Amino acid sequence: MREEHLDYVVVPLGLAIMGAYHVWLFVTILRCPSRTVIGINAQSRRQWVFSLMADPLKNGVLAVQTIRNSIMAATLLATTAIALSSLISVFVSSTSKSSSTPLLYGNKTSLVSSIKYFSILLCFLVAFLCNVQSIRYYAHASFLVTLPTSMDRRDSIEYVIRNLDRGSKFWSLGLRAFYLSFPLFLWIFGPIPMFVCCCITTFILYFLDTTTSFTRQLHSLSIKDEPQTEENRPVSISV
User: 193-201 long-range CB contacts below 8 Å, 24 or more apart?
Assistant: First the structure.
């Protein structure tokens, strides 16, 4: 295979490996969430909201401080993403023509070089937007979680859980965009380093996203049953 055509085969193959893994992860989260860290974290957040909203006047400060830590983490990622986007934009605008280095093996045309930098820039912009949306939902949930709500009003508690879950999902999407930027950055040095990085990143993400039987058992023992409402609370009959 010619060196100029290597990018057209190896790069889509590496992206297809990462895409296939994330499709599998998405299906696993929907069908068996306990096998994934994302699913277990969602169950833990659900139990956490039910526990705190049982007495919001007592647990309000703890809830706001915990959500504030998540807001600070999302703010840090958003700031990093927009800073890297600005640096890439300045670098591309200051580069008049592509300079081929001996480390680069692959297509050295200016069109492919522009696609490389645009892909990295797009990754960081997506990460910035996802983290901004995460901050939005976390900030909204910090107000809702301190509202005095009785335990028989499950609809309002479920609304708080949905907002907290959306904030966490957007934060995860922003983090995935950072993960994708590593193979795209190595694409600057050629399609082969990019393909190797895709395989290594997918392998690492599999161990970071999945849970073991010990973890699932530990989680099932640590989590409590949801507080029962007036509708489904069993009625004791004295004989």
Answer: 194/10, 194/11, 194/14, 195/10, 195/11, 195/13, 195/14, 197/14, 198/14, 198/15, 198/17, 198/18, 199/14, 199/17, 201/18
